[in-house]
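Subgroup meeting minutes
Present: P.N., E.W., G.H.
Scribe: E.W.

1. P.N. recapped why we're keeping a running log of single-chain structure predictions: easier to compare across weeks, and new members can see raw inputs and outputs side by side.
2. G.H. added today's entry (428 aa).
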Amino acid sequence: MKFTPTKYSLVNYSDGRRFEDTGWLLADPQSKEPSLIRAEYENTRFNPREDLDGFYRYADWLPIKRILEHSHRPVTYRSEGLAAYLGLENLYITFSGYFPKIGAKMETCSFKETEAYSVCARLPEGNEKVLVLASAGNTARAFAKVCSDNNIPVVISVPEDNIGALWFHKPLNSCVKIIAAPAGSDYFDAIALADKLNESSGYMAEGGAKNIARRDGMGTTLLSAVEVIGRIPDAYFQAVGSGTGTIAVWENNLRLIRDGRFGSHKMRLYPSQNEPFTIMYDSWKADSRKLVPLSAAEAREQAAEIKAKVLSNRKPPYSIAGGLYDALKDAGGDMYKVTNAEIDFWKARYLELEGIDIYSAAAVAVCSLAKAVEEGAVRKDEVIMLNITGGGESLTKEHHDVWYAKPDAVIDSFLPAEDVIDTVNSLF
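Output recorded in log:
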């Protein structure tokens, strides 16, 4: 379909410098210090697009060049079961996953689809470079599905131990290549592989949190909530591995304030982590912008222990200007940590109360909400947004055939870059 992209400029968070996007900028080339950049859209009013389907309903606040096929958006609804259980009067759940009863139909059951449909649509048609990204699981599944459906060449690097997370409704298009760091590796090893591949001019880094398209895609969760509620929530709960989703909703909160029709307040942010992998929680509790020390060995050990494997990013965008530390300092709020036993409890309770299975990471967010209620950090009458970042896998596997992907190559992350590049080149 013919699509006219929304106009925007880029702004450096650290110094406010405004500049134009030359195509795939991930940082301000003139910045004196590491900083996130953000998109400032010419259209300052929140304007859901009735003429566009699925995720692209929010295209006016997305830095995209085209519309891709088969997208779905997050769905927000007012909770009854969980709200009553916690004694909350205005609990709204934004659900990204598969739950047809409420209209949620994300095939990969994860809000990582919001990233993929935005990032991939930022690519111009005819782009000749191969997109490269690393993932612990859900992001890989989302990007593989979106790229497969839309014939976008991509290399996805994952830890081999997480390959079971790469299930789909049908076999993948050959434009999608999956490489894996060997058994015993973690997310950081997958990142190391991707970084080596990006040393070749034929490949391009997806960019992670630095990519404005990733953050603004994830920020559509708040747009979904505000469209249903009619105002900016008072408090926001989400489990975090990198914190990018929380940064994203903070940024959209600021855009909504600028609009002026949905309130002038900043919602308090309550991100949470799975104990013992709590690098951001520990840093925040120490009131430290700098991340607390965490060795590679410690990170692998902690990542092996947690149930919410997707929350195991040991180099998150916490300290960088415009990152999670700045978001929390600006908006207010706190961080929580949740044990594996608490995850099991809240997964079972959520299924009972809301009627759908959720991922371990989403259960971390539910538990943190319960803790906040118990502590009095949120009032019973406040408008609360709970971001359920993934769910419905059991249900979608009942409703659809499932196909499991296998790595196209298993590559040691300690190999020289040229060997990694040669191996991947041979796959195409």
